[in-house]
Amino acid sequence: MRKNVVVVVSTSIAVVVVGALIRKWKRWKEQQLRQTKQIIRKFARESATPLTKLWQVADDIVSSMKISLATSDESSTLNMVVSNVTSLPLGDEEGFFYGVNLHGKHLLMLCARLGGKNKPISALQREHNCIPDAVLAAPSEEITDYVATEIAKFVSGHPEIEETVPAKKKKLGFTLSYPLDEVIPFSATTFQRKNANNPVRKGMVKDLNRALTNHGMKMHVASLVDETIGGLAGGRYYNRESVAAVTLGTTTNAAYVEPAEEVASDLTQSPNSSELVISMEWGNFNSPHLPLTSYDASVDAESSNPSAEIFGKLISGMYLGEVVRHVLLKLAQETALFGSSVPPKLMTPYLLSFPDMAAMHQDTSEDREIVSEKLGEIFEIHNCCPMAREVVAEVCDIVAERGARLAGAGIVGIIKKLGRIENRKSVVTVEGGLYEDYRIFRNYLHSSVWEMLGKDLSDNVIIEHSHGGSGTGALFLAAAQTQAHRSDS
């Protein structure tokens, strides 16, 4: 009898203890959820881009554009580099052309036929090449020679198709993409000048053309320009109302066509040109109205260029995933979102790329299976609960929405500067992986433009995907420069 009583008492105590543990666990989970929600709500509030905020940013961009164009002094957060491209396509260019795009040490060579009069690109061929590290460590003459050698081999392997224009009268389109390794002679530092027609840039073109001649090439480079200007050339080829181009990928930039009379005379490349092509370098833009958070401050402080590229750090793919990582790290540290210990890889910078961020954000499976899979692959976070997966998707949404809507405000700012919002159609060409492959980001960008302009004016700004894909802008520049050269002959 006494033994039975002891068993009953022991069982009762065990039940009480277990019950107390369960209640404690539930309270902890409720507290964890409250803390998580508080952090997310605060981040969403500070990242918000209501209509008034978007117009403040757009107006600040317009002001910065005007200030920069009025003087050669570096008095604006926008560099506004006046390109030495003096001719954009007219749409009637025909022929077989070659182009080159250099992105860091990655060399993309292309060739294609343009048919003129709104005909699509045909016979497009691409070839990618990675410049070896040993070459990059060599003097600039060897790097230039390597690039010329690869171009010569590509042209030899893809000869002109039924071409009547002599090769010696053709121009080779050459565009540059960020980031460019500074050991390459086509350094990104050459863009940090408001006047692109400088001795450094001219010297690079001269050296490259000398190397091309040494390899038997009859085609020559007319200018080295940012790839966004190539996107503008492609847009202009298909539509005369194409006035701007934007790159939204790992990095970002915007280029547009400005009436020559709006630019200070000491910045003008060609006094006979009625319009100038401007590379805005808009990643450098900054404004007190940008919705910056403590996470953005951390990303900026830990970057290779603190206090620079503030707009770029909000809208470009290089940084979107990094902002998400910082928020998730905060949640892991303060709410144990991913378990009692902080996953070590969550503390490693730049592990989360924007394609992986997009995959998690756009995961529509019932249990967010892709989110779980990506967290395991990237951060070695396994078996996270459904609530944690939803939180990850929500953080991605906040970051992507803010970036896309700010990019939309930038586009509206350009069109406003040109005075085309109310009375003219304007086409803006957009290229880059963020726009092409990140559907939700693209939708947020479009909706921000529509929201800013309203039902009556939104049809005046037409946003189009670039024609032919990344790098093809070099072909359109080659066509325009070749035709201009023939007209001058």
From TrEMBL:
Pathway terms, separated by semicolons: Carbohydrate degradation; Carbohydrate metabolism; hexose metabolism
InterPro entries: ATPase_NBD, Hexokinase, Hexokinase_C, Hexokinase_N
Single GO MF annotation: hexokinase activity
GO biological process, one term: glycolytic process
Signal peptide: none
One GO cellular component, as annotated: cytosol
Annotated keywords: ATP-binding, Glycolysis, Kinase, Membrane, Nucleotide-binding, Transferase, Transmembrane, Transmembrane helix
EC number: 2.7.1.-
Domain Hexokinase N-terminal: 40-237
Origin superkingdom: Eukaryota
Hexokinase C-terminal domain residues: 244-479
UniProt enzyme class: transferase
Transmembrane segments: 6-25
Family: Belongs to the hexokinase family.
Protein name: Phosphotransferase
Taxonomic path: Eukaryota, Viridiplantae, Streptophyta, Embryophyta, Tracheophyta
